[in-house]
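Example 3.2
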Amino acid sequence: MTKFSKHRPGSAILLAITMALSAGSAAADDWPDWRGPNRDGTSSETGLPASWSPDGENLAWRVPYGGRSAPIVLGGQVYIQNGVGGDESLQERLMAFDAGSGDLLWEHRFNVYLSDVPPHRVGWASPTGDPTTGHLYVYGAGGTLLSLTAGGELRWQRSLNEDFGLITTHGGRTVSPVLDGDLVIVSGLSSGWGNQAIGRHRFMAFNKNNGETVWVSTPGGRAFDTTYSTPIITDVDGTRLLIAGGGDGAVHAMQPQTGLPVWKFAMSKRGINAGVVFADNRAFVSHSEENLGTSEMGLLAAVDATSTGDLDADAVAWQVTGFQGGYASPVIDGDRIYQIDNSANLAAFDLTSGAALWEMNIGTIQRAAPVLADGKLYLGSVTGRFFILEPGRNGAEVLSEVQLGTVEEPEELIASPAIADGRVYVVTDQALYAIGPDEPRSSTGLTPPAALPTSIGPVSQVRVSPTELVVEPGQPVSLTADLFDARGRQVPNGTVTWALDGLEGTVTPGGEFVADPAAGMQAGSVTASAGGATSSARLRVIPPLPNEYDFEADAPSSSPSHWIASTGKFEVRDEAGSRVLVKKSDNPFTRRARVYIGDSDLSDYTVEANVSAIRSRRQMGDAGVNAQRHTLVLMGNHQRLELQTWQPETVRTVTMPFAWEPETWYRFKLSVENLDDGRVRARGKVWPRDEAEPADWALEAIDPNPHPQGSPGIYANAPFEIFFDNVRVY
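Structure, written as tokens:
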């Protein structure tokens, strides 16, 4: 974290007082979430500006820091998430500004690694603030989830790509976190281990206080895309529901405290990016892709949110086909709903019937969602035009239209605005604007968040946490079984029965598990039962280093049970009198695979492996090993050896020519160590397996943004089969 001194005298004292007052509860005028306090793009504030100018009118301040995601405002500070640096120094960061003056208070930078996200897509999501504590939650484009204090100190951090096999793609689409009680919830496409090995869009809930995994839910089927549909959480007939679009083309509703799926509405042949809004027990959903059962593109629909199971046409109150609102999220205004299509046409529909009321154009390309406050719509388009509109049932009056940048070189507006304390905050790709009075309006008061509903039973669900753990043999682990009723409301703890599934060890009546030291590596679950309901915590048991894998004890057609992202992509096979692990080439969707075989907290270690590859039709794959967020990889078609940390950012990759012969075994060796001066050094070499190891390292890199820890693993891009054997980590 880097802290900055502020330019305005006395502002440090003012900030300290503001944060102290807000530590226990949320200011009514805060905007702690990317779509506001209700997560629906609305604010109850009044007296907001109806016009402004970047040259001075109603402009409180402008700072030259931009981004692609929406700002949030909490406790007198404005936060934005973006990328910083370039080439080998590029990172993702969270920035904090004084809301009154615009002074930069601090920034926290973190790395992107082992990801396909291109540099220009970094900083996709918005941070989320906790109104109770002022703590912040950040979900990076590369799969890092972290929590910070309001002063910028790191509280905890998770690597979801290493811990869950999170798949981050060239699109960079990343959801913004949401909070519910003591949980912070995100989602993404992942391929883990066991019953989570198949690639699916999954929702993951973490303890907001320490980052431990509480639940993982897989409500949908095969995913077509990564998506960024951030959930709304609302009460539906006494059941608290989290509702969001998924990568499988469906909108899903689940109970946020347990992850239990309640209903899904399949509507698209691609993933859903638009957020959902809710009113009158209806969920309003939209997309811009191909509809199911037809080649027509786009849909806006009202769905009965009180339903359960797989929703069909009977659950649809109304729908408008052909409306392509796929990127922005809608907003509700009394008896109307507004949505913007991908070509920047703002449209109004009757909330009850779906009848089209009016339409107006605000640009040519649209990404940002509108915000409704004080009877006005605040919205911008990618072309840099920012509007303040006064909407009605028969049309919208333009109160203000501002071109940010020039028509030829606009400041792109991808992010939605935020509203707090009498101001409107707008982020372009170049700047952050505070629109409104010179001083932010005094807070109208403190509103503590409502307590989550509870129940006296009966018990219908059990939630065992923490889950998705990596433990060592003989290491005790304390698990907790929380009980819930059918509506997802917590009930008082009662009698719980514990058992083991696929694990060798012991579990006490109080939920303490110890893996049998003699069992070695294993993976399975500790289950808890109460009131006829059962749930489990999943654990991988991995001994401390050194570890070796020769696959001789693994059954043919299997893969190591505790490896992340290997099942279904790799299989053990008998080859030339011994067993090896084969990266299969039978599925183009899983052609590339990065497998993690240990704890993401490991550091200062070496990975070795034997690798061989097939060449066919003059094509050859790529293969390598991972250590501490570095990859040593042979590129078959390029006949090149590379040492990478983030492949799309090619400037930081070290390379050399290497003649890789097909159907020939080579030995890979990658060693990463933390140096005394805080830097990290990675060194790698590859040589024919049957020859002596060369004395010199072939490649060496010292990354300016060091990776002090990370999981060991293997990597393969297999248009044709690739073989691994004798993997060693020490």
